[in-house]
Design brief:
Blueprint (H helix, E strand, L loop, with lengths): L1 H6 L7 E5 L3 E2 L6 E8 L2 E4 L8 H6 L2 E5 L5 E2 L4 E6 L8
Parallel strand pairs: 1-4
Antiparallel strand pairs: 1-7, 2-6, 3-4, 3-5, 5-7
Length: 90
């Protein structure tokens, strides 16, 4: 969204999708987790650490996990940011 705004492109609209698996939250910061969309559900990348480009390169979207002390459970609705190389938001 920041790059869209700085380049004059229309802003990215965040949509929500359901997690197929739980994803851990970070107590003090938002997490952006690469994920694939399969039948409308989000499957987080297996390799999703900050230096892992494999998961990001195969992802369709970035899942936004809000800060908190617990895990975002499977089935929870979370905002996603589409990636330019992804398969879209089905």
């Amino acid at each position: 969204p920041l790059l869209d705004a700085l380049s004059g492109r229309p802003g990215t609209v965040l949509v929500r999708r359901e997690l197929a698996e739980p994803v851990g939250a970070s107590p003090g910061a938002h997490r952006l987790v690469p994920a694939r969309l399969v039948d409308g559900a989000l499957h987080p990348a297996l390799r999703r650490g900050p230096a892992m480009l494999t998961g990001l390169s195969r992802a369709d979207v970035l899942v936004v996990i809000a800060p908190g002390p617990s895990t975002a459970p499977a089935g929870s609705s979370v905002p996603v940011v589409p990636l330019p190389w992804g398969r879209g938001l089905m």
